[in-house]
Design brief:
The protein is an alpha/beta fold. It has three domains: about 90 residues, GTPase HflX, N-terminal domain (Rossmann fold); about 170 residues, P-loop containing nucleotide triphosphate hydrolases (Rossmann fold); about 60 residues, no CATH class. It is built from 13 helices and 15 strands. A seven-stranded mixed β-sheet has the order 6-7-5-8-9-11-10, with helices on both faces. The protein is elongated and about 95 Å long. About 30% of the residues are buried. Monomer. Associates with the 50S ribosomal subunit.
Length: about 425
């Protein structure tokens, strides 16, 4: 018979396992931050070196006994393991330690459950939790035999565990239907933006890289930006005006993490589709993070999993205010296209370079040059000023307007076609 699980669980012992498998290794500091983000009070941090994980407990039986003594001494209600536990390992540890045990996946799911604010976010979290729980259902009591049947209900009946599993399957089916409806609504809104030819830019990156701070700085919004993992869970969309491209939509999305539970990726697919259907991805990277190379690799893995790895991507190295002798800069590839921007979203340094890079990547062909317009075309001159295309204006000795302009080539062609004229006779000088 299993003990009754308590509702509490703030006082916790954290167990971090060092293995020889590089792919299975976790970051102990990130583990501490995850536990803190979930609201746990870490009273002990135990690091265990083990070449081969135990099938029964994941860790050795000697360590289990040692941890059990600490659980009693420190009056701990919860043990968190920085590793993925099988359902049997989780149950075996709970029996041996006589307290609640959760693994890394359960910890991340708990954080997501706390942070979900919108109806869609809550649906997605509940779905991920139920699918995770479905393999961990155990009978928490033994006094119930098979349910007794009355007239017309006699027979084998079903156990309480079977009832729980049946109800869980029904609820999972309902949640999937509701999320499918949400996905259809998102598709409809996305098609509306595509018909209006409004580009969508999606911020992606490792959790706590500064996406929400950058989002707020670019759009003057008030999205929650906190120094904690998964501060943003629900996607937020805002409008942004670019000098050349004009109006675009900027989307702030949930952060990624190493070994992000597959159930979460599946449950949040409707949200992550904002990234997989974007015109441009802005990969926000914590430039001050020592493990940034591994974080970049993890983000790219998730982008590949959701089918967003082929979308044009601009790297933004954030938090340069925490680094010495690093200034805002725009780096280009061998073809001259913007590839990487170094900024500080907190201090709003380098945001002008970022906007310039986004503008260039979204605008295929930019015309930069000087047009000579006679006084009879003053109406066209006024139109150039209306769309903020004029960078400089002079008047020659014949009274002609010399306008130095910058705007998309397609927009220039459209304006000149409206006046039923070819641009060549009016070019004073041409530069790119």
């Amino acid at each position: 018979m299993l003990f009754e699980r308590p509702d509490g669980g703030e006082r916790a012992i954290l167990i971090h396992l060092h293995t020889h498998e590089m792919d299975e290794r976790e970051d102990p500091q990130e583990f501490r931050e995850l536990a803190h983000s979930a609201g746990a009070e870490c009273v002990a941090f135990i690091e265990i070196n083990r070449y081969q994980p135990s099938a029964k407990f994941l860790i050795g039986s000697g360590k289990v006994e040692e941890i059990r003594e600490q659980v009693k001494t420190l009056e701990v209600e919860l043990v968190i393991v920085n590793h993925t536990l099988t359902p049997s390992q989780e149950r075996n540890l709970e029996r041996a330690l006589e307290c609640r045990v959760i693994d890394r996946t359960g910890l991340i799911l708990d954080i997501f459950a706390q942070r979900a604010r919108t109806h869609e976010g809550k649906l997605q979290v509940e779905l991920a939790q139920l699918e995770h729980m479905s393999t961990r259902l155990v009978r928490g009591w033994t006094h119930l035999e098979r349910q007794k049947g009355g007239i017309g209900l006699r027979g084998p009946g079903e156990t309480q565990l079977e009832t729980d599993r049946r109800l869980l399957r029904i609820r999972v089916k309902q949640l999937k239907q509701k999320l499918e409806k949400v996905r259809n609504q998102r598709d409809q809104a996305r098609r509306g933006r595509q018909r209006a030819e409004i580009p969508v830019i999606s911020l992606v990156g490792y959790t706590n890289a500064g996406k929400s701070t950058l989002f707020n700085s670019l759009t003057d919004s008030l999205v929650l930006a906190a120094d904690q993992l998964f501060a943003t869970l629900d996607p937020t969309l805002r409008r942004l005006e670019l000098p050349d491209k004009g109006r675009i939509v900027l989307a702030d999305t949930v952060g990624f993490i190493r070994h992000l539970p597959h159930k979460l990726v599946e449950a949040f697919r409707a949200t992550l589709e904002e990234s997989s259907n974007a015109d441009l991805l802005i990969h926000v990277i914590d430039a001050h993070e020592p493990e940034r190379t591994l974080q970049i690799e993890q983000v790219m893995n998730v982008l590949k999993e959701i089918g967003a790895d082929k979308i044009p991507l601009l790297e933004v190295y954030n938090k340069i205010d925490l680094m010495k002798d690093v200034q805002p800069q725009l780096q280009r590839d061998e073809t001259g296209k913007p590839q990487r921007v170094w900024v500080s979203a907190q201090n709003k340094q380098g945001l002008d370079l970022l906007v310039q890079a986004i503008d260039e990547l979204l605008t295929d062909d930019i015309y930069v040059g000087t047009l000579r317009l006679p006084p009879s075309l003053s109406k066209l001159r006024a139109r150039f000023f209306e769309i903020n295309a004029v960078q400089e204006e002079q008047v020659d000795d014949k009274g002609n307007y010399l306008l130095t302009i910058r705007l998309p080539q397609i927009e220039l062609n459209r304006l000149l076609a409206k006046e039923q004229m070819d641009k060549e006779p009016f070019i004073a000088q041409y530069t790119l």
